Amino acid sequence: MVRSMLIARRWASSSASSFKPGTKFNTFDRKAKLAQRTRAASLTPELSKKTEYLRDEVATRTIERLAFITRDFTKLLDLGAHLGNLLKSLCMESEIPAEADAEQKAMIKELNEDRLKVRNKIKEYVMVDSSKEMLERDAEEPFNTLFPGKIVRVVADEETFNNEEYLQKENQYDIVVSNLSMHWINDLPSAFAKINKLLAPDGVFVCTVFGEDTIYELRTSLQLAEMERRGGISPRVSPLIKLDDVNSLLSRAGFKMLTIDSEEIVVGGFPDIVAVCEDIQGMGELNAVLSRPGFMPRDLLLAANEIYKTLHGEEGPDGKVTLPVTFNVIFMIGWKHSDAQPQPLERGTGQIDLKQVL
């Protein structure tokens, strides 16, 4: 299922460097990322909600996929839970607008039924996040009381799995879900392998990450501006995973029966590049590459803004040019091995000659 969606909101880039010796094999500064996400959690709920639209939307699309899985999710691990976007999307129903047509009404009704179906399967919901402030900020929000099962919040690192009870005991979860969090993990193969061990046999791993074409408009604009003004480019936007690599990453970690697809979400309506960066900061998604540059000079930002408008700007009916941002989201589903899973027949045991069929 591949679709695109236009959301009239904003997103975007950069931060300060803190490279330390002995980290040359790592790409991301996990301490800086923790600080960024903790600052994002300190925003007032009203301001934060304006920048949570993307995680909320991806969480909803994840629920649509979970609804197709018929087995129960007695114990679920939400790894990198942020503010609880997936839990909120499970518990909050979408209202049907008065102006909605029959098709829209049917889609919203089906989504609400999917939420109820998935929610009632879960008996224990374990939320893990490295930021205590982000994990606990919305713990008293009304949506928590709508969940029929048990909710557990655990502060632990999503990369090191440094919690003995919830992140080191094998075969304890029926499902592990990660919503837009794993793209900041340095060693993805190791993290996926650890997740596989956490799952019970025939357990399922459902994950979303940003793909390599995410915010390509911002990336290319900054690169062209820096080439023009500085004669070179700096890593001002973090590297992201390639869709072609996902299959091998999951297979190496021991997952079977893989399902992988991607969707594009286009966010429009940004007045300028500064507005794009404000939303990224509000999400706690600033650049966290170890070798990232620090302060962005004013002349570079102005040049990037004009390039952005020229190459990617969208002119509205009123003649104003606004900036779009494209997010490429990769959805992946993998199952832990079980002898009870369907297995392919041995080679040569087929009973039908394909030549006759074709």
Automatic annotation (TrEMBL):
GO biological process: methylation; mitochondrial respiratory chain complex I assembly
One GO cellular component term: mitochondrion
PANTHER family linked: ARGININE-HYDROXYLASE NDUFAF5, MITOCHONDRIAL (PTHR13090)
Full protein name: Methyltransferase type 11 domain-containing protein
Recorded superkingdom: Eukaryota
UniProt keyword terms in alphabetical order: Methyltransferase, Transferase
Single Gene Ontology MF annotation: methyltransferase activity
InterPro entries: Malonyl-ACP_OMT (IPR050602), SAM-dependent_MTases_sf (IPR029063)
Species: Scheffersomyces spartinae
